[in-house]
Structure formats: C-alpha cells, structure tokens
Amino acid sequence: MKKTIVRAVSTAAFLSTVYAGSAYASTHTVEKGDSLWKIATKYETTVSELKSLNNLKSDFLQVNQKIKVSADNAPSKTEATASAPISTKNYVVKSGDYLGKIAKQFNTTVTDLKSLNGLKSDMIYVGQKLKVAGKAVTTPPPPVKTPVSPPANSSATSVYTVVSGDTLSKIGLQFKMSVQELKTRNNLKSDMIYVGQKLSVTAKAPVTPPVATPAPHTPVAPPAVPVQTSDYIVKSGDTLGKISQQYKMTVQKLKELNGLKSDMIYVGQKLKVSGKNTVVTTPKPEPTIPVGEFADAFIEVAHSVMGVPYAWGGSTLNGFDCSGFIYYAANKAGYKIGRYSAEGYYSRTYYVDQPQPGDLVFFENTYKKGISHLGIYIGNNEFIHADAKKGITISNLSNPYYTAHFDGFKRFY
C-alpha cells in the first residue's frame, strides 16, 4: 500500500525520501513585484537566510536578478506541490469573509489560497467556492461565566404605579424610603408626580402583621400612661431643633408626636409638645388669613386681570411681570405683602405635597439660573401667570416646557 509521506523535522531526510534522484533548481529569477519576504515564503526559508546565502547587504532586488534559494538543490515549494498533490476540499465564501480570514481558518497563507484557486487579486464574493487544504482550525468555545450572586446587602427593586392621592412622602412611607431616595432612584428633579407614572421602589410594600391575640389567662400588660402634651404655636424663626430644646425633647420625638415626615414647619402651625417650657415666653400670634377665604379671593382677582399685557417690573393694570402679578393679586385679596422677585416669594412660602387652588407654583432655570418664574395654581393641573407673549393667561403644567422647569407647589406662611 502506498503511504503518504509526512514532513519530518529534517528537510534533507524528506527530500531524499520523496525526491531521490531528481534535480531541482536552487536559484530564483526575480520578477516584477518580488520581495525577499515573498521569495522566502515561497521557498520555505527566511529573509535572513536568503541575504546570507546571496551576500546581500539590503532588501533591494532587481528584476531578472538570480537569487540562490537553497544551498543543496532543495526543491521549491511549487515543485514539491506539483510532485505531491495536496488533498483539498471546497469552502463556500460567507458574508464577512476575506482571504486573510479564510487562510487563518485553514492554517495556510493568502498566497497559497490564491495559487490553489488561480486568483489574480484578493477579491472574493459571497457564495464563491474556494479550494482549501487541511482542516479548519476550530475556535474553542468561550469559557462559561459563573453567575455572580448579588451582594447580600443589595436591595431588590420593583415598580410602583402612582395612583390618585399619592405623594412622594406617602410612597416613601409605604416602601420605607426617604423622598430623596425616591427622587434619586427615579431621576426626579422635583416632588411632582402624576397618576399612572411608573416609579422604581425598593423591595415590596411592608405587610402589617396581624395582631396576636393573647392566650386565655395570659396576663396582659397594663396600657401605657398617655404622655401629657400641650399645644405650641410656631413663630417666625422657629425650627424643630429650637422647639425640642425649649421643651427638653428630641427632634425625632417631636416629629413622632406630630406625625411629621420632614423637618419643615410654618408660622402659625400648631405642634404638640411634652413637658414644660424651659423659657418663659408669651408667644405673640402672628396675623393669618384663612386659607380658603384668601385662596378664593386670590384666584378671583387673578381672573379679573386676564389679558393684561406683560411688562417687565410691572405691578399695575398697565402691565405685569410674574412677581408683580402675585404682588397685585395677593394684596387685592387681603394678604398684605411686599413687592418681591420670584425668589423673594419663594423664601416666604413653604412646600406642600398636595396643592390646593390658591397655592403658588414655582419654576426654575427659565430665563436665568435658579427660581425665575411663578404663578397661581387654580386646580386641574392649570395655573394663571404673566406670560411674556400673552400677558396674564392660563397654562397647563403638562406642557413640556413647564414640566421641564417645574420646581414645586408652595403656600404663603
């Protein structure tokens, strides 16, 4: 049986076995486009060996120059291929293929591929059949990644859909989150939310466990003695810290006693306090206007000046800007207040989670950075304000411009 000869480590032994008694050319005539690297590849040698064999000092070659390629009449790669046919198979070109990629895949060279298929250029096309030698080099499958378990302290998340009557404070309390956590997690720029809005929240809403019924004849602890409390009226300059120190309470206890979700308080607010006042003072109640009565009058005055043109710095019927409009309407409604800028009214009001008609609505970063515009909320997501183009007009908060610049709802102290 005829055996296929496999190339051994010794080239001389291979040649003596397969090509014994044959004479082969040991020189190469330089052709146009040849280079030492190309010739070395063709004759399975190196550029260094070629330069040493031909005493070349540089890589420069001339057409028709005779180059020694072997010191012992070794057969060229072309002649060896002609004498010992290579086993080939067909490969169909796929989208994204090129000769270099296919040559690498079958452990051959671009030159051999072109020679084997009679190609004059590197151009190939999808569906073309090419002869290739050897077997395709298979790429080992990527290592299987072991799934990484989430850290023990990571919080599971779920989605909550806002329903009518919701506020960030109410949702935060339900899911044991702060308002700031909710705003950060959902990229909210203000406290404003709308029905149907999807919010990312942590874990699930806490389930209130059923109250355990004591077993028969089990002694039940006597009810706790209720804490004696008294009322305190918030004055200008008061803070929870100042009031708690005055009544020897902690801020947390003061908030729990009054069901407060934040540290915000306002002048005239009634707070329950325990203990005795350590400072003997006679609080002077500040004059206040009933919210409902003022709100109705405030909105009525605002409607009465609909259509008055816009005037920068204006606060009369000849023209209004946004803050001049608020000054005019509030004073006409019976709430005596000075003429301030939008920022001035911002500092004389407090935030409300559930706005009522007559509250103020503030906007930021309109024509300048910070609080820069305000109007009067009239319900149904609408507000009256001084528009630079339309004068005193009604706009909707769902307008993309106002939604983008919305800061929040506030109420006069």
How are the elements arranged and paired?
Elements: H1 11-18, E1 27-29, H2 36-42, H3 47-53, E2 66-68, H4 77-83, E3 88-92, H5 99-105, H6 110-117, E4 129-133, E5 157-161, H7 168-174, H8 179-185, E6 198-202, E7 229-233, H9 240-246, H10 251-258, E8 270-274, H11 291-304, E9 315-316, E10 319-320, H12 322-332, H13 342-346, E11 349-351, E12 360-364, E13 371-379, E14 382-387, E15 391-396, H14 400-405, E16 406-412
Antiparallel strand pairs: 1-2, 3-4, 5-6, 7-8, 9-10, 11-16, 12-13, 12-16, 13-14, 14-15
Helix pairs in contact: 2-3, 5-6, 7-8, 9-10, 11-12
Description:
With 413 residues, the protein is α+β, with helices and mostly antiparallel strands. The protein folds into 5 domains: 64 residues, LysM domain (Membrane-bound Lytic Murein Transglycosylase D, Chain A, Roll); 52 residues, Roll (Membrane-bound Lytic Murein Transglycosylase D, Chain A); 46 residues, Membrane-bound Lytic Murein Transglycosylase D, Chain A; 46 residues, LysM domain (Membrane-bound Lytic Murein Transglycosylase D, Chain A); 122 residues, endopeptidase fold (from Nostoc punctiforme). Helix content is 26%, strand content 18%. The protein has 14 helices and 16 strands. The strands form 6 sheets. Strands 11-16-12-13-14-15 form a 6-stranded antiparallel sheet. It has a two-stranded antiparallel sheet with strand order 1-2. The chain has a two-stranded antiparallel ribbon with strand order 3-4. A hairpin with a 3-residue loop joins strand 14 and strand 15.
